[in-house]
Amino acid sequence: MQVLSALLIWLHQLATVVWIGQLVLANLVFMPLFANQLEPPARGRMMAGMAKRFTPLFWGSVVVFNLTGVPMLIGGMDQVGAAHPWSILILVKHAVVVVMIILGAITLGAATKAAAEATPTADSQAAGKRVRLMSTVSLICGLVVLLLTAVAEAL
Question: Got the DSSP string for the chain?
């Protein structure tokens, strides 16, 4: 049983690293680089390519994160009870994860749609700004998830 538990934890952490890692790369490396180095048409093509590559990583991470997290959550609640501070922190963490999933799905869809336009319009430029904002909020949520997890595990 300990081997299964270790495997669940490892897969859960791996999914978390991939998910939050792509947010770090997108927000702190790729988007600033694209904004400073590329004209809008080329920037749109690069954003579309990035969204295309990130989409399977995002959804794969979400699936693995949830498939491994549910048994871990049930096991943890069985040990400490629903009113324990750990349970409350983990519940808040999962609420933030739901926000991240929604933002991620919207962001990837918007990035793909905005980048599909060959000639940038005011609408596509506004959509690009919304994509950057949603991606930044997702990154902040990811960092909050890591903080909540650390605090809960320290209890």
Answer: -HHHHHHHHHHHHHHHHHHHHHHHHIIIIIHHHHHHH--HHHHHHHHHHHHHHHHHHHHHHHHHHHHHHHHHHHHHHHHH-TTSHHHHHHHHHHHHHHHHHHHHHHHHHHHHHHHT-SS--HHHHHHHHHHHHHHHHHHHHHHHHHHHHHHHHH-
Q: Residue type at 8?
A: L
Per-residue pLDDT of the chain (155 residues; tens, 9 = 90+): 689 889 999 999 999 999 999 999 999 999 898 888 888 778 777 888 888 888 999 999 999 999 998 888 877 666 777 778 888 898 899 999 999 999 999 988 877 776 666 566 666 677 778 888 999 999 999 999 999 999 988 98
Name the pTM for this structure: 0.84
